Amino acid sequence: MEIETVPASAPHKGRPREFCVDAALASALRVFWSKGYEGASMADLTEAMGITKPSLYAAFGNKEALFNKALDLYEREKLDYMHAALDAPTARGVAERLMRGALDMYSCPENPNGCLGVISSVACGAEAECIREAVVARSAAAKRAMLDRFARAKKEGDFPPDTDAEGLAAFLTAVNQGMAVQAGAGATRAELERLVETSLKLWPGR
Amino acid sequence: MEIETVPASAPHKGRPREFCVDAALASALRVFWSKGYEGASMADLTEAMGITKPSLYAAFGNKEALFNKALDLYEREKLDYMHAALDAPTARGVAERLMRGALDMYSCPENPNGCLGVISSVACGAEAECIREAVVARSAAAKRAMLDRFARAKKEGDFPPDTDAEGLAAFLTAVNQGMAVQAGAGATRAELERLVETSLKLWPGR
DNA sequence: CGACTTATATACCATCCGTTATGGAAATCG
DNA sequence: CGATTTCCATAACGGATGGTATATAAGTCG
Q: Is the CB of B107 inside 8 Å of chain A's CB atoms?
């Protein structure tokens, strides 16, 4: 929970805001998630958020700043399962929690289809290049965390010593990205479930 | 090799065209491949193709028709490894050829990064919805071909009888899509190679 | 050589894009 | 009560978008 725009103690002078910033940001996230950065027009955003353009600019800066805040929210609310997954006791547990967490998210009917990160990291127009870079940087960080976890798992004996932890991290990332693509293309939960079960069956160990 | 616009025997009346349709289409493909359907503006396209807008419209119809023809070309030239892959004698051979073929394509420095199909199938603006549907339909057909091949492999004993061929098809598709996403995000060939080797090591049987 | 057909080049169209200036409305402060 | 500050609503901005009308150039056909 955030305290609007000003630090904290502002006993609001001036006219009070007529909308909830958090709710508006959540609506914006849904639009970006459905249409991507470039596909989401300001008209789409303002309509979904229930505010006018000047209000949006006053509260969030501009479209890019709004997207970044929406991305923060996405990471915070929708990607928290990743942190929990990395805390699993074994590498296999990490993989399982990661895939099942992604599966749950992608097949939740209240969420737009697909993954905001994947949607935003595929190539698009020139104006969105900085957006793309920001998203790629974030997912690189996520992948590094996974890699570190697998390196630890290797030392702990979850994997044979000749295991390519980097390859496994890339593999798990790829399965999740592929799941996102298929979810974005309209795959059913049953199909995604099958993908997860198969991947889990192929995962080394146990 | 196509015969321009008219059936075949046209002893071209009127002013002759000053550019090569096939070369222009190849240039257009590169632009769509780099920037996606919506990210590619008519100005981008005409500049890369070396022709003016009226010439483009006269030769290809409109942006959507141009994209579909570029997609045909992409499938014909860049995705032919898929047909060859499905002809491999074993299911493992199919998987290997599919992944290595994708790897070669994604890491060819002359090609734009990523996969045109994946780029075009992730959500974007409303105007591109029909494009998205067309691409999704094509990749669904590709997946079905792979599924049929694996069903056959199951009957031929490549897999144990309790194998989930559908799950394996979804899995292989997902790895390739994930590879495309990572390639689009700028992964090196070495990274993608590692992903392929790992996936191949996990693939069932020998 | 004309007549005809087709391609090119320039300029333009309506529409939408993200963004912002302007004027009034709603609250607190003195 | 002003005075002040902040927010909302309308409407407009310059620029870019996909798509075209018009006029001219470059060929073949009779």
A: no
Q: Which DSSP category does B128 fall into?
A: G
Residue A59's domain comprises 21-74
Contact between A100 and A172 (Cβ < 8 Å): no
State how far residue A16 is from chain B, nearest Cα, in angstroms: 34
Q: Is A199 on the interface with B (CB under 8 A)?
A: yes
- Asked whether residue A12 is assigned to any structural domain, the reply reads no
List, for residues A127-142, the tens digit of each pLDDT value.
Answer: 888 999 999 999 999 9
Does residue B39 sit within a domain?
yes
* CA–CA distance, A145 with A132 (Å, rounded to integer): 20
Q: Which residues of chain A does B195 touch, with a Cβ-Cβ cutoff of 8 Å?
A: 167, 170-171, 174
Q: Which nucleotide is nearest to A59 (CA to C1')?
A: D7
* Residue B126 and residue B59 share a domain: no
Residues of chain A with pLDDT under 50: 1-9
Q: In chain A, which residues from 22 to 81 place their CB closer than 7 Å to nucleic acid strand D? A: 51-55, 58-59
How many C-beta atoms lie closer than 10 Å to residue A15's C-beta? 6
Is residue B120 within 8 Å of residue B37, measured between CB atoms? yes
The reply to whether A101 and A192 lie within a common domain is yes
Regarding whether A176 and A110 lie in a shared domain, the answer is yes
Tens of pLDDT, residue by residue over B5-50, are 434 445 678 899 999 999 999 999 999 999 999 999 999 999 999 9
- CB pairs below 8 Å between A and B: how many? 161
* Residues of chain A contacting B182 with CB distance shorter than 8 Å: 170, 173-174, 177
Sign of the C-alpha dihedral, residues A48, A49, A50, A55?
negative
Q: What was the pLDDT predicted at A10?
A: 55
A27 CB-near residues (< 8 Å, 6+ apart): A48, A49, A50
Same structural domain, B161 and B196: yes
What number of residues does chain A have? 206
Tell me the chain A residues in contact with residue B35 when contact means C-beta distances shorter than 8 Å: 123-126
